[in-house]
C-alpha cells in the first residue's frame, strides 16, 4: 500500500476548531478543488486605495504540466484561467515585469484559494446545534503567469475538460491567436493546504435529548443538498439533432455521484 501524501501543517493551514474534521491529504483537497465549479481567489490588491484585499471568483484545476500522468493524490499545481487584463493578471504581470518574480522561480504572487460544497442541512433540537454537512478546502500558494505556449494549451484543455469531460476534443481547437492572446493562465505553486469535512447526523447535547417534551415536538435530521445538472438545452444556432453521448453520460454520472455522496453522509458511520 502506497504512502498517503499530505500537505505540511503550518500556522496558515492548521485546523484548530473541530480539529478532528481537518484533512491534509492531497487526494481530498485536490478532488474538492477539481469538482468545484467556482474557486474564490484572494490576493493583496496594491491598486486599491482603501486597502481592501481582492477576492475574485475564478475557474481552476489541479494538474501537472511536467508530469501529466500524475494522479490526484500526487503533488500538483493549481492552474487559474482568466482574462488577460483582469486585476489579478495585471498585478502578476506587473510583479514579474518589475523583476520581483519570474515564471521559472519558486516564488510568485501570494494567493489564497477557497472551495466549498454543502452536502446537507443538519437540523437539530436547538438553533445553536444546527449545522451543514460540508466539504471545504483552503489552498495557499504563489502564482506566476504561464509563458510557455504548450503549458498554456495544457492548462486551457485541463480547465475546459473540467467544465465537461471531453469537451476540448469536441470543439474547434486549438484556440486561435486572438483567443490565446486574450487569455492568461496563472500557475499556483501550492505550499500548504487543508480541508475541513463535516458529515453525519445532528449531534445534540444530552440536556436536550433527555427532554421528552423537546424530542417529541421537534423534528431532527438532515436535508440532503447536492448540485444537479439539468437536461441540456440546445442553442438557437445548434444544428446537431441529438445531444452527444459524452454530454449525456457526464450529466448522468455527475448527478448520480453528487446525490449518492449527499445521501451517504446523512447518518453517522
UniProtKB/TrEMBL annotation:
InterPro entries: Pyridox_Oxase-rel, Split_barrel_FMN-bd. SUPFAM superfamilies: FMN-binding split barrel. It comes from the Eukaryota. This is Flavin-nucleotide-binding protein. It comes from Penicilliopsis zonata CBS 506.65.
Amino acid at each position: 500500500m502506497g504512502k498517503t501524501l499530505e500537505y505540511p501543517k503550518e500556522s496558515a493551514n492548521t485546523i484548530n476548531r473541530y480539529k478532528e474534521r481537518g484533512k491534509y491529504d492531497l487526494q481530498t483537497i485536490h478532488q474538492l478543488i477539481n469538482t468545484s465549479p467556482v474557486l474564490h481567489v484572494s490576493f493583496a490588491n496594491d491598486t486599491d486605495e482603501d486597502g481592501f484585499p481582492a477576492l475574485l471568483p475564478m475557474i481552476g484545476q489541479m494538474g501537472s504540466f511536467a508530469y501529466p500522468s500524475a494522479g490526484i493524490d500526487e503533488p500538483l499545481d493549481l492552474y487559474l484561467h482568466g482574462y488577460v487584463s483582469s486585476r489579478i493578471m495585471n498585478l502578476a504581470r506587473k510583479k514579474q515585469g518589475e523583476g520581483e518574480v519570474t515564471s521559472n522561480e519558486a516564488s510568485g504572487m501570494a494567493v489564497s484559494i477557497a472551495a466549498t460544497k454543502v452536502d446537507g442541512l443538519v437540523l437539530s433540537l436547538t438553533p445553536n446545534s444546527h449545522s451543514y454537512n460540508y466539504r471545504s478546502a483552503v489552498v495557499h500558494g504563489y502564482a506566476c503567469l504561464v509563458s510557455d505556449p504548450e503549458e498554456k494549451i495544457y492548462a486551457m484543455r485541463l480547465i475546459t475538460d473540467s467544465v465537461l469531460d471531453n469537451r476540448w476534443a469536441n470543439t474547434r481547437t486549438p484556440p486561435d491567436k486572438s483567443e490565446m492572446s486574450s487569455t492568461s493562465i496563472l500557475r499556483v505553486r501550492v505550499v500548504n493546504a487543508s480541508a475541513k469535512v463535516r458529515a453525519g447526523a445532528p449531534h445534540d447535547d444530552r440536556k436536550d435529548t433527555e427532554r421528552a417534551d423537546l424530542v417529541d415536538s421537534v423534528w431532527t435530521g438532515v436535508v440532503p443538498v447536492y448540485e444537479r445538472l439539468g437536461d441540456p438545452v440546445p442553442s438557437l444556432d445548434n444544428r446537431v439533432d441529438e445531444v452527444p453521448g459524452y454530454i449525456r453520460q457526464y450529466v448522468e454520472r455527475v448527478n448520480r455521484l453528487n446525490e449518492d455522496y449527499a445521501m451517504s453522509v446523512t447518518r453517522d458511520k
